[in-house]
């Protein structure tokens, strides 16, 4: 059964996560406020970030970097800055 939440990232009602995907208070906030589609957008950014900066998720410092980027992306409206990546031109 899917649950609908108000996604603060998309600023609209959307399908919520099935379970808490991330530990702790940040994870609770993501579960309550971040929809599946917003989370997918983050996962794409996270993969690019890990590849670009050659981050190792076993390294606590690297996990801290990822967490900071995740919070600023999902909750503060900041895009992830990825060196050497140029987003495709938006056609109007």
UniProtKB/TrEMBL annotation:
It comes from the Bacteria. Keywords: Iron. The keyword DNA repair does not apply. Pfam families: Iron_traffic (PF04362). GO terms for cellular component: cytosol. GO terms for molecular function: iron ion binding. GO terms for biological process: cellular response to oxidative stress. Monomer. Could be a mediator in iron transactions between iron acquisition and iron-requiring processes, such as synthesis and/or repair of Fe-S clusters in biosynthetic enzymes. Necessary to maintain high levels of aconitase under oxidative stress. Belongs to the Fe(2+)-trafficking protein family. PANTHER family: FE(2+)-TRAFFICKING PROTEIN-RELATED. NCBIfam families: PRK05408.1. HAMAP family: Fe_traffic_YggX. This is Probable Fe(2+)-trafficking protein. The lineage of its organism: Bacteria, Pseudomonadati, Pseudomonadota, Gammaproteobacteria, Enterobacterales.
